[in-house]
Write a structure and sequence with these properties.
Elements: E1 4-8, H1 14-22, E2 27-33, H2 38-54, E3 59-61, H3 65-74, E4 77-83, H4 94-101, E5 104-108, H5 131-143, E6 146-148, H6 154-163, E7 169-170, H7 187-195, E8 199-202, H8 217-231, E9 236-238, H9 248-256, H10 288-298, H11 302-320
Parallel strand pairs: 1-2, 2-4, 3-4, 4-5, 5-6, 7-8, 8-9
Helix pairs in contact: 6-7, 8-10, 10-11
Length: 334
C-alpha cells in the first residue's frame, strides 16, 4: 500500500520530516503559496530546495506518480507542490506552464474570495468560473496541473468539473451533509466529482469536522463510508490539511493575506481565530495508521482501505501530471 496525504501546510522541520518516515508516508502534497505572487512563490521553492539538500535521506521533490513508488522503495517521502490561490500566476496565463516546470502539480482557482478565475466559498454571490478561468482550466489541462476547488463556491465548483477536460480534485474538504461548514461540499458537487473521475481528499482540520476537535475516529470513518456510497470508493482519499506547529499568525496570513486590513475569522466567529487542537487520534504524520485501523474496524476491506489511504491518489497522479494526450512534450515528442 502507498500512503499519500494530499494536503499539508506544516511549519516544516527535521522533526516533521522524521515523523513522516515514522508514519510511513510515501507522498505529501504541500502548499507552497497562499497569497504570494510569482517571485515570492519562487522564493518558497528555493526554501524547499534547501530542505531537499539538507534532508535527502528523508524527502525529495516529486513530480510524477512513479516518484511515489520510488519514495516507498527508498524509504523517503516525495513532496509535491501545490498552490492554494492563483495569485502566483498573477494575470499571466503563461505562468501556468512555468509553474508546472518548477514542479507545481495542483492549483486552486480560488481561496475563499472571488478571484480572477472563480468564486470562493465565503462570497455571497457565486458567478461561476470566469472568462479567464475557462482559459486557465484549459491551459492547466494541457500542461498537467490539477484544478483544485477546495475553497471554491458551489456553482464555480460545478462549472470547473464540467469545463475541465481532465478530472479535477477537491484536495481537502468534507461533505456538507456530515458537517455544515462553508467549505464542505454538497451532495450535488460530490456526485458530479465522482461521476467525472475526480478526487476528494477528506480533511482533518477541526473546523470542518463534526464535533470539531472532539470528533471521534468512528464518526470520521462513518463519514468516509457514507461518502463512498455517494461518489464511489475509487474517488476518495485523504487530504488532512495538517498545519502542524504553525503559529496562530499563520492562520491570519491564510485568511487575510493582503486583501483586507481587518481580521477575517473564517467560519464566522472569533473563537476560530487560531489553530484548533487536532483530534487526539490524529495529531501528526505518525498517526495515519490509526485511520487505516479505523477504516478496517468500520468494515472496509483491505483493498478498499488501501485505496482510500493512497492508491486512489496514486492512480490520479499517474493520469493527471503529464501533458494532455496529443500535447507535445518539452522535447517535441508526442
Amino acid at each position: 500500500m502507498h500512503l499519500i496525504d494530499n494536503l499539508q501546510y506544516a511549519n516544516w522541520s527535521e522533526k516533521i520530516f522524521k515523523q513522516m518516515r515514522e508514519g510511513g508516508v510515501d507522498a505529501i502534497h504541500v502548499t507552497i503559496a497562499y497569497h504570494e505572487m510569482f517571485r515570492e512563490t519562487v522564493t518558497n521553492i528555493e526554501q524547499w530546495n534547501r530542505w531537499f539538500e539538507q534532508y535527502p535521506e528523508l524527502i525529495f521533490h516529486g513530480t510524477t506518480g512513479d516518484d511515489v513508488r520510488h519514495a516507498k522503495t527508498q524509504g523517503r517521502t516525495a513532496i509535491f507542490f501545490g498552490l492554494q490561490n492563483p495569485s502566483p500566476i498573477e494575470d499571466d496565463i503563461g505562468l501556468i506552464k512555468i509553474c508546472h516546470m518548477l514542479g507545481v502539480r495542483f492549483m486552486q482557482l480560488t481561496y475563499n474570495n472571488q478571484s480572477l478565475l472563480a468564486t470562493g466559498c465565503y462570497e455571497d454571490e457565486d458567478s461561476g468560473v470566469t472568462r479567464m478561468g475557462r482559459q486557465v482550466i484549459k491551459e492547466m489541462n494541457n500542461v498537467g496541473m490539477v484544478v483544485d476547488m477546495s475553497h471554491s463556491a458551489e456553482r464555480s465548483t460545478l462549472d470547473a468539473i464540467e469545463i475541465s477536460e481532465r478530472p479535477i480534485a477537491i484536495t481537502h474538504a468534507n461533505p456538507y451533509f456530515w458537517h455544515p461548514a462553508k467549505r464542505n461540499k454538497s451532495d450535488n458537487v460530490l456526485r458530479a466529482l465522482g461521476q467525472s473521475g475526480g478526487m476528494l481528499g477528506f480533511s482533518l482540520y477541526p473546523h470542518h469536522l463534526r464535533e470539531k476537535s472532539d470528533c471521534t475516529l468512528e464518526s470520521f470513518c462513518e463519514m468516509i463510508a457514507r461518502t463512498a456510497d455517494l461518489m464511489g470508493i475509487n474517488n476518495i482519499g485523504i487530504g488532512s490539511d495538517l498545519c502542524q506547529d504553525q503559529p496562530d499568525s499563520v492562520v491570519e496570513w491564510m485568511r487575510v493575506g493582503r486583501w483586507t486590513k481587518e481580521i477575517d475569522y473564517g467560519e464566522g466567529s472569533a473563537i476560530n481565530a487560531g489553530f484548533p487542537s487536532m483530534p487526539t487520534w490524529f495529531e501528526d504524520n505518525r498517526h495515519f495508521g490509526t485511520i487505516k485501523a479505523g477504516l478496517r474496524a468500520h468494515g472496509f476491506a483491505e483493498t478498499e482501505t488501501a485505496a482510500i489511504m493512497g492508491e486512489n491518489w496514486l492512480r490520479f497522479y499517474d493520469s493527471s501530471f503529464g501533458p494532455k494526450q496529443g500535447q507535445k512534450t518539452e522535447t517535441g515528442a508526442k
